[in-house]
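# step 3/5: fold
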Amino acid sequence: MTTSTQHSSNDQQVHVVLVPGFWLGAWAWDDVVPHLEAAGLAPHAVTLPGLDDARTDRSDLTREDHVQAVRDVIAPLEGDVVLVGHSGGGPVIHEVVDRDPARIRRAVYVDSGPLVDGASLAPDLPAGTVELPLPSWDELAAQGSSLDGVDEAGLARFRARAVPHPAGVAGGRVRVSDPARLDVPATAICTSLPAEMVEQMANPGPPLHTELGELDVTYVDLPTGHWPMFSRPADLATEIVRAARA
């Protein structure tokens, strides 16, 4: 696990922990981090276990490994903590909130959301699957992960740096149980779907299986595809700053 960090002697510093989705490391936030630093926040971009190198053994990694990795980033921080989760990183940060809700000032979901207890992002993986490689662009689009707004250079960088996602994490069941998790304020930055539509779909049933509707949520529209850190990084940073200061 690696992080990109700005240190501050100010105990009241607001720390923003950036958790990427499938196939991504801390590098995915490279164009967002400078804007957060310029706004006076302390960003910590996380590379979760198994996402550091294509040669890494991912066979035994679990959701709890990813949850604990984020908790390890938070543990030494002094001041307020805002969690940001993109895509598959959203359920991870929700599990982190569940483990210690009093420690988190706000959770920010970027084209993502908190899953209900027992839900899985990939419940139908074949037995013995160890990892999930980055699909083709057409396959991603068919799955609803729009690449709108990402230029050819961005796509090439994404393809070159993507790492297979651990199947044990993708197929693992979310575990949340502390009712206090629902008291932590949240922001939903809606990029693939309009905020109005996301709000209507924010219930425990299909297709989202989300607890978003049970939270104190601020919905924000940021129209683009599923990867705003690549397509609209400055605008995404602006919304993260607003959420961190809310």
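# step 4/5: annotate
The longest strand covers residues 80-86.
# step 5/5: archive (pending)
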